[in-house]
Amino acid sequence: MLIAIEFIGKNGPVAKQKLFDHLVNFTNPDKDAQVKSRDGATTDVLYYIREILGFVEGDDSVLTLTSAIQSPGINLYSGKDLYAVKVRGDLQMAYTMLQTNNLYFSPEIRDMLGFIFKKGKARRAEVGTEYLKKQVYGHTFNQATIDFALQTLLRLGLIELQDNYYSITYIHPLLFAQLLLEEYQANANPVDGTVSSGDMRDLFDLKYAIGYEGFDNNFSAVRLLLPELIVTGSYEKYSMDMDIARRLNLYA
Amino acid sequence: MLETSYEDLGLIRNPFETIIFDEHSAVGYGLYGRKDQLERLGEFVRSAVRSDRQKRILVMGEYGTGKTHHLIKLRDEITSGKHGSDVTAIYLGSLGVSFRKFYENIIEALKQNTPAIRDTLERLPDVEPGQSVEPTYAPEKLRENIIANLNRIMADAKINNVRGIFLLIDEAEDIVQWKDNDQVQYFVQSLIHLINNLHGTPLHIIMGFSREAVSKISTVDPSQSSDRKLGDAFWQRFSAEEPIRLGNLRERDAASMILDRLNSARIVPSDSLYPIKQEVISVVTRNVGGNPREILAIFNKALTQTLKSGTKEINGNRIIQVLAKHESFFNKNIVLDWNRIESIQQNLAAENEALEADFTALMGVLIGEGKSVTEDDFTNPAFAEELTKPIHGIRILERKTNKDGEIFYIINQEVIAEIFKGKRHDSETEQILYNESIDLMTNPERYQDQLTRGLWKVLQKEMNAEYKSKHLFDDKLVIIGNCRVGNSPIPFSLALTAFKGSEFPEYLYRGLIKLIESKQANFGVVLYDSSKIELDPVYQGFRRDLKEAGKSVFLESLRTIEFKKLPIPDGQLMEKIKLLGNPDVETTDNIDTSGLLSSIGIASEMEQLVLTKVIPFPDDPSVRRVIEKLAEDQTKTYSLKELKNECNAPYLDSETLNGLLKQHFVKKDGTRWQIASLDQDPIWKLIYGFIYQEKGATLEEIKEYLESQYTLQCSPGEEIRLLNWYIDLLVRLEMITGAKEGASVVYRLLNHSQKLDVLVTQCEDALRGLKSLLTDAERLNIAISDYERKVDTLEGRLDPLTVEPEPGSDHIIRAKNILDDIGSVQNAVSEEIKSTRTSYASTLSNYKEQMDLTKERIRGAFERGIITDNEHAEWQANIDDLYAQASEKLKEGNFSALTVYLSQLDKVIKINTREIRERETSKEPCISYAKQVEDLKNAIGELLADLEELGYSNPKYLESYADLNNKQSHEYLPLFNDGKYADALRIIESIHTGLVTLKGNLVKQKTSYQNYEQMIEAQRASVPEESQTLLYLDEAEEALREWDFATTEMKVSQFQDALKKREQPVKTPEEEFVEKFSAQGTVTLDTILESYTVDKAFKFLQSLYIRGDIEAIEIRIKKNH
User: Fold this and answer.
1) Contact check, Cβ <8 Å, B467/A207
2) Nearest chain B Cα to A122, which residue?
3) Cβ contacts (< 8 Å) between A168 and chain B: which residues?
4) Coil vs helix vs strand at B205
5) Which of A101, B178, B212, B707 is most buried by its number of CB atoms within 10 A?
6) How many CA atoms lie within 13 A of B547 on its CB side?
7) d(C-alpha B845, C-alpha A154), whole Å
């Protein structure tokens, strides 16, 4: 995906075929023998970066990078943002951008990430048992989509596989937002609809092994990414805007 | 400063610098602490020598534990003939994981060790694949060629009565260090191929291996279509023999090793460890875990530094300096933390500089030698006591008293633990731990929540515990989480807390009991650090006041783990736990949570509790479906794949099933799964037992019983669902049946008569099948007596069931178990039959090689004219025929006949080979003898002619000559012409001997004749004509003409006597008298009177005295006159 973004960014509006040629040339023909077809693979890439992640726009003859993604309540990254950090050589940030847009546009994958995180470490069997035929944000999982979701999480560097166990490598702000929301719903004061920051820090420490400092850092990251989600109250309390949460697909 | 020399230390060189890494370096050093291992190696070799099939064993040991040394010693033992002159061994090390080099080294070694097969070795085809071979296939082809050649070698070795070749493979280090993983895989695959192809021959394999090498080859085997691990295939081939493990040395053995090394560098060996202080050996051994190579490396450095420093002893001071720079072989940490010593010194100096100086002076003795000191060793005796008090939170010394009441001081073990890296964390963590320990010492109860959080984090990380809730009782924190036994899919909930304080926390315990009673948690656990709980009056009061229900919870569902009684003590455990639970500390990665879990022993404690107290209920419907499916038929087994398909559980995996195994839901047979039987104590046995005991029970009664004794692992209100599931399982298992009686359903045991009959019949059929299998096995020459005994036992177990009047489910299970056991025996027999068949096939394949080799030799012998046309054809046909028969018998499965044919083939091959060899060695000598015989015959012919001319006519020699001639033409020539050179050689040798003797006799006759003739001639010429005397010579001559040597000799002698008589003058009696005694200077009268009378004696004396022929006559008068 990054190669495609870089190519479009560097060459201005490009036609689909030109992009495909570039991607094909870039790949090793031997390895490609394993792939169902080069055209198929490149079509998948384009579909993903244009239709799903919103990094590219325009029809097949004039593909360009997006300048901004209009999505209220969340600061998503555009194709040009991504191209800029890639040119700068900041691969870590490029990955964060890919992760953010992926987890936002595919909330079912984020949900699966949350499941793995809560288990600490999970076997494919456990993920499969949990998600098979399960409907998550309108997406019903089957064996193929479960494996695809796991592959996507692996490719994005959000999880790793060791000794047959998947475990999380990094708590993305969107995942943390999901957890915050789940705990908010479970623990909010029924009278004023707030939770105490201190209680939440404590709960996250015990339940998710996220220490106080980790909680604070993640909390800030969520506020940066989703500025309207958390509504700060007095006495170190806060509430969450459930409408925004629903709109952001943080809960169904 | 002057450096010390080796001579100053009584050494001729550095004894520690040589490490044993190849065959040259192994010579001259002993092996220590390896008695058991050496015995096992010896036993393995002996058993292999007795077997004519391949045996394999691994020698497992880490880097530096002596694998190479063992293998080389063993090689030397075998090649020196300790296990027989007909076995040999080849050490194969430093091959660079090259299979080609492996092969070349074998060939090279065999050329030197085994001359009997040298000819075959010289003529082996090149293993390098030809040009025409596709490059990608070349490695496989090379391997194929190597194995074919090795097969040929083993064939020729067998022909030449070599009983075994041991390959001692020492490639573990190369495997670990080799970067090219493909090459390692190729090497290991090649060894597997070698084993597969030659396991029917006595090519035995002893392979050195290490943990790291194991992990290196535990990769997926690309040559297999399935995901089979290369390592698995390799281990499987070594599984018949338990590996010989080379562990680390004990202190005593380390000392013996050091002494051996020292003596290797001394002119005169001794028992002294000088220049090493004995105590430092213990300290070094303890702190490097006893790795022999590492111990030697440390003493090498210590000795070098000692020489440079100009001192003459390796003492504690020297050792701590070395250990402070030595990187551990095991974990790459520096063994001794010098900074920590310095920090202690600084802390002491801050208190009292003289104290610090004393500590520094005694440090080597206390730490490096691990010895004690007394107060007299200090400049100020009070210093010793001072060091027993905490200085900056740590006590340096511990006071001890011996049995005589004398006080001495040793270094505090906490100091040791801190100084030696293996037992400590990095300095930052250590610092934090100090702070934690100070907090806990000053105000333990204040940090109860941190201790509980810390304990929770251990479980969260190590047992994958999932948080449920937290609770406070009297301000004391309790956390409830879900935990699992192993990977069980069924969690149990645990309320846990930790406590350190002075008084028993009664309210905390009451809270825990409440949580369990209200089913918020299945169990409770308290990590408890206080004085003896039993002596605490608050605890005693609490126990007294406990009501019945609470008491049973306290006793059965609540565990108190006392810090002072931990299974694996850890002095800093509470500090580490607190640190983990301290929310202000962000990074706790250096705390070994796994070690903490082991120390606390909570996992096994909980597992035991769960397995004895919990009635679990699988949450996951697909897991329940699997158990239900298995329960449909107790005797049926399923593979994982079958279960996935049949239970619609695509994500079922072996981990889940192993979890169920641990909780006794299922059992496992190889890779197949089955419902657990009653003897494995599955959960449903409790319900079954209750129904059996009560002779029937309703659901409510079962529930009441279980709730009174066990914990139902379900949410409140779900108990009936759980029970119904178990009852349904029992019905599926055909153990109980329910019938409506009045308002409720009563469950009773099922009548099992009919089912038992069916099972008994199945068992009987299976036993018949097994017996028939044993007959097959017997034909394969497999020892079946053990199996027959097992069959007898099984029949003995089955007999009572055939006459059981009132069968119950236990009888059904017994019958099923018998059926299972028959199946197991059947599998074992089948497996052995299969293995023996393949082994026979491998043996036959090697015979094919032997046959080809022999036929090649027969053809060669024919071409060289050593064997006849007939033999050439017949011998080959015979071998072909026997081989064909053997192959046929293998196909038919008639292994007794196969063994007979193989034995005949073996015999024929050996006879043919011997025959060819003997002929090759007999023909030339035959020809050589025949030539000599011809020469002899010529010489004898001439001799006979000469003798005949001289008138000799003794028929004995002529007859003898004729006999020998006859023997040559009638015996020797036909044998030779038939190619029976060995027999012919024997005959021609005897003819030759006969002719030599004959010739000797004839020569003697002729020579004697000529000698006598010459002698007579000479005598005749030397005397004047005198007819009387010459008559004798005439008579002698006459006798000689008639070849009468006896008469000739006598007549010549008579002639000589006559001649003497004629020449001799007559002596007077006086002259005779003088002649008789003249040899004696002086003679007494007594001597004279022995020959003469007194008268004659005096008469001769008188006359001779007067003639002056006697010089004097001496007379001695007796003195008493």
Assistant:
1) yes
2) B464
3) none
4) strand
5) A101
6) 5
7) 51
Q: How far apart are CA B879 and CA A207, in angstroms?
A: 80
Residue A200, pLDDT above cutoff 90: yes
Query: What is the rounded CA–CA span in Å between residue B957 and residue B997?
Result: 10
A residues 153-182 near B, CB within 8 Å? 164
Nearest residue of A to residue B468, measured between CA atoms: A207
**Chain A residues close to B652, C-beta within 8 Å:** 125
Q: What are the Cα distances from residue B751, in Å, to A36, A224, B616, B812, B935?
A: 61, 72, 28, 10, 107
For residue B461, list chain A residues with Cβ-Cβ distance below 8 A: 120, 209
User: Which H or E run includes B39?
Assistant: helix B35-50
The answer to whether A191 faces chain B, any CB pair under 8 Å, is no
Using CB atoms within 10 Å of the CB of residue B646, give its burial: 0 to 12 exposed, 13 to 18 middle, 19+ buried.
middle
DSSP code for B331:
T
The better pLDDT of the pair A28, B955 is held by B955
What is the ipTM, given to two decimal places? 0.79
Whether A132 has its CB under 8 Å from any CB of chain B: the answer is yes
Amino acid type, B72: I
Contact A164 B460 (CB under 8 A): no
Q: Are the beta carbons of B656 and A125 separated by less than 8 Å?
A: yes
Cross-sheet strand order for the sheet of A165-168:
A122-123, A165-168, A159-162
Match 């001579």 to its residue by tokens: B7
Show the tokens assigned to B170.
């020492």
Cβ–Cβ below 8 Å for A126 and B651: yes
Q: Does A128 touch chain B (CB under 8 A)?
A: yes
Q: Which one of A120, A125, A127 has the shortest CB-CB distance to B464?
A: A120
* Mean pLDDT, residues A109-130: 92
| Cβ <8 Å between A209 and B453 | no
State whether residue A142 sits within 8 Å of chain B by CB. no
Residue A206 is nearest to which of B456, B584, B649, comparing CB atoms?
Answer: B456
Distance (Å, rounded) from C-alpha A139 to C-alpha A135?
Answer: 5
Is A205 touching B (CB cutoff 8 A)? yes
Kindly report, residue by residue over A41-92, the tens digit of the pLDDT: 677 788 878 877 888 888 888 888 888 777 777 888 888 888 888 888 888 8
Mean pLDDT in consecutive groups of 10 residues from the start of chain B, 1121 residues: 81 82 69 86 92 88 85 90 90 88 92 88 89 84 93 90 91 81 87 88 90 69 53 75 80 89 88 92 84 89 88 90 80 78 85 88 91 91 88 85 83 84 50 64 77 93 89 92 79 91 88 90 89 81 82 84 81 86 76 87 84 84 91 86 90 89 89 88 90 90 88 81 92 87 86 83 93 88 88 92 75 84 91 83 87 91 83 92 90 82 90 85 85 91 87 82 91 85 88 91 88 83 68 86 87 82 70 82 86 87 84 80 55
- Residue B388: phi and psi, rounded to 5, are -85, -10
Determine whether the interchain pair B457/A212 forms a contact, defined as Cβ–Cβ distance below 8 Å.
no
Q: Which of B472, B591, B651 to mutate to test the interface with A (most CBs of A within 10 A)?
A: B651
Q: E strands along B652-807, which residues?
A: 666-669, 672-675, 697-698, 711-712, 736-741, 744-749
The whole-angstrom distance between A109's CA and the closest CA on chain B is 18
Distance, CA of A42 to CA of B799 (rounded, Å): 73
Question: At CB < 8 A and 24+ separation, what contacts does B39-45 make?
Answer: B40/B244, B41/B70, B41/B74, B41/B206, B41/B244, B44/B206, B44/B241, B44/B244, B45/B74, B45/B77, B45/B78, B45/B83, B45/B166, B45/B204
A119 contacts B466? CB cut-off 8 A? yes
- The two tokens of residue B551 are 């008491």
CA-nearest residue of chain A to B489? Answer: A126
